[in-house]
Structure formats: structure tokens, C-alpha cells
């Protein structure tokens, strides 16, 4: 519809996740009227992120060095290992400031429909990390959906017999939410996981 | 939250219109796992669009040359001029295949709240184009909202006395829509603009 370069940009933007044709057009026109320096900077960070950022050789988190900031942080405990699907999940948990251990990023969840089995995830690396006996608790923090639950169940079975306590993040009502709007599975989990408060 | 380059990319993406922090993060992680060649291509078209694309010196539409494809097209009539706010509107009208005249892109609409007055739009250029008397009809196709209506009213007043018939796109019920869901202003306009079908 547009002339050469504008259409090329709309096409490329439309390949990004969550960007439909309308958004792509909107962004392209924003780029057209933006300062050249701003666009230059965006183009620069796009290529830079590909050349600079790799994955931490220990935990699989995104990192600019061979090891990530968290793995290198001496104030963080090596006793507790929190297993997550993606690097995004590390950031979400870090935001809570509740966890001072280390992470292990699987790089996804078991999803047979998309052809992702245990061998496609960093499970072998997890087993190697746990082999030296330093870790005293493993927290399975995969997503509370079918794939995440399947992955947690698989990992719990793998870890059984290693003598390391394994826990799973609690499911229940989101704080600040409304009980009547909770779906029945979440509400069921909240009942199941209810805690005594009279003690 | 993230290390250097990843956070830089998230920040830059978050400056684009319609991209919130969550989308920016999602796109950044997509970029991290995408093929280097694909990211390179996106970075390339971003800078290329800035260097290649300019605005047509006649109509103000986006163009890779000094004049746009539509202005250069000898099959298009010079008699009818369609005045729009943005280059996007040209594409929308072209899609209808109803219009075979030329365009004039104002570069926005009168919006006192955002400090956009008539002098910030390409109205002087419009007057110059109309001065030679070749145009026999002006269609005001600004948006059917407050700013677009104000701009159309302003232009209609400017053009009065030039002896050129001026029309405005019809307002009414959207085709394929449902009468009961139409807002009262649209429905009011549809009544106002009703057409006899018995003749």
C-alpha cells in the first residue's frame, strides 16, 4: 500500500509479537516524524542487544558476561534454587524482594503440542547443578498453567530421591482481587491451600 | 531491572506509540531469541525509512521522491482534490478505489488544546494549489471528530468565495453495523443525511 521503505518498515514491525497491521502502521508513522537521532538509537540498541547479550552459563538468565549479575552476587545464597521458565520470570520474582537465593532458567516449559519436551529445556544443567549437594531447597516457580504444572510435576519426579526438599509456589486468590471474579480452578486451589490462622 | 543492553532496548521500545512496558519486554525477549539477520533487517529499515522517505512537495503525502506516486500518476484527475489530515488517510481512501483525483495532506487537524492552529497545517500550500483554478471540486475528508470537523469548517470558510464547490464526506451508520449499537450523534447524522430512495 505504501511506497518502498515505509511498507518495508510496516512489514518488519508487523512480525514483532503483539504488533498487528494497525499498530505497525502507527509506529511506522511515528518513526517517520520522530527525530532521526531517536530512531538511530532504537536501531542501534536492536543490533547491540544481539551482539552483547547472551545467556548466563550457570543459570541461563540473560547476561552481558559469561555469568549474570545474580550468579556473581556474593550476598546471594547458594542454598536455595528457584527454577523458572523464562528470564522474564526472574525479573518478576526479583521485584518482590522476597527471594535471596539463585535461579535456574529452563528456557520454557514442557509443551508437547509445540514439540517442546524435557530435552529442549535446561533440565540436564539443573541436575548437574544439584549434583554437588550444596542446594538444600528447590522452589519450582514455573507458570501456574497446564505447561508449567506439567513441567513442575516432571521436575518433582526427577528430583525425588535426591533428598532435596522441593516446593511449588502457592496458588490461590490474587491479592487485591475480588473473590467473586476468581475462576473456579483458582478458587478451588485457594480452598485446597487454605491456612489456619487461629494458631 | 535488566542488565544494560536489554534494559536499553526495553526503554527505547517503550517510547513507541501504543507499546507499554509489558509489550516492550515481550518484544525485547523476542528480539533476543530471534535470528540475528531478522533483527538486522528491522534495524536497517528503521534507519532507511528516515533517510529515504520524505514528504511529497505537492500534496504532503509520504514519498521516496520529491513527488509522490499519486501526484505523478498521469491517469489521475487534477480536477478533484481530496483534503485529508494524514498520509494514513490517503491509504485508507485509496483502498476504497472510489477516488481517482489527487490529495492534499494537511499534516494534522486544528487542535487548540495541543497548540495546533491553522498555521501549523499545510493550508497555505492548499490555497496556492487552488489558486490556478484547475481544481473544480474540493472534498474535505478530515476525521469525523471534533478536531476534524473544526478543520473542515475552517477550510470551508477559507474556500468560500473561490467559486469551487466544497463537499464533506457523509456521516452516518457504518455499513455492516447494527443500528441499535450506533451512538446517538452518528444516528442523528444518519437521520439528517437521509436520502430518498423512492425517486
Largest sheet properties of chain A: 4 strands, parallel
Q: Could you tell me the radius of gyration of chain A in angstroms?
A: 22 Å
Strand content of chain A: 5-15%
Written as H for each helix and E for each strand, in order along the chain, the element string of chain A is HHHEEHEHEHEHEH
Q: Could you say which overall geometry of chain A the principal axes of the C-alpha atoms support?
A: globular
The number of helical runs of chain A is 8
- Protein structure class of chain A: alpha/beta
Q: Give the termini distance of chain A in whole angstroms.
A: 69 Å
- Return the CATH class of the domain at 75-168 in chain A: Alpha Beta
If interface size is counted as residues with C-beta under 8 Å from the partner's C-beta, which chains form the largest one? A-B, 51 and 51 residues
Low-confidence parts of chain A lasting 5 or more residues at pLDDT below 50?
none
Total E-strand runs of chain A = 6
